[in-house]
Amino acid sequence: MKIRLRHSLLAVLITGSSVWSSTALTGSPAAQDESKHWFHGATGLIEEVRDATRRFQDVSMATAEGYGAFLGCVSGPQEGAMGIHFVNGGLVEDGVLNAEQPEVLIYEPRNSGRLQFVAVEYIVIAADWDAVNPTPPSLLGQVFHYSGSPNRYGLPPFYSLHAWAWKRNPHGAFVDWNPKVSCEEYAPEAP
Question: What is the mean pLDDT of the segment spanning 105-126?
């Protein structure tokens, strides 16, 4: 069952909120190589995420597949950041979770306007999920976090799960905030 969501912020998610210049569209080869060192031997959801999202190292692939930048760069309340969220509103709105199709791709702003792919986030609106499922969502054994409303994103209550598949998070692969990610290099595009 698909529930039609009537929330102005979701409309922004569906259409994307900004376009990046072509110079910001690819992560550096050094940043991509950095992710290989800690990943060796990872299994489960992280391995599946890497296999399914490798093409999104280039942000132009994300935008071509319906992802759009949302809310600028998200910094942590105490330590670290998440980065710039590229959201596919159609995937958020469908009420379905699929490990191979994350609703959000997350990039860290780097020097010279480049974006480094660091993580994905799975999101499902709680009312959509709860209408057809008796328990909170999980993917390959990883249970989602619940966020009520009001929240900093202006969304109705939702479930989410971050998967730091492209940049190591010393606090864990499924923790929201990564102390190795920074928004210091973020320079928003002029309107």
Answer: 95
Q: Before 191, cis peptide (omega within 30)?
A: no
The pair of structure tokens assigned to 9 is 């912020």
H helix intervals, the chain: 8-15, 29-39, 45-53, 59-64, 89-93, 126-132
Q: In what order do the strands lie in the sheet with 81-87?
A: 68-75, 81-87, 104-109, 115-125, 158-163, 145-147
Does 32 have pLDDT greater than 60? Answer: no
Residue with tokens 């792919």: 117
**Could you report the per-residue pLDDT of 64-110, keeping only the tens digit for each?**
999 999 989 999 878 899 999 999 999 999 999 999 999 999 999 99
Nearest Cα to Cα of residue 100 among 32, 49, 156, 37: 49
Other C-beta atoms closer than 10 Å to the C-beta of 20 total 19
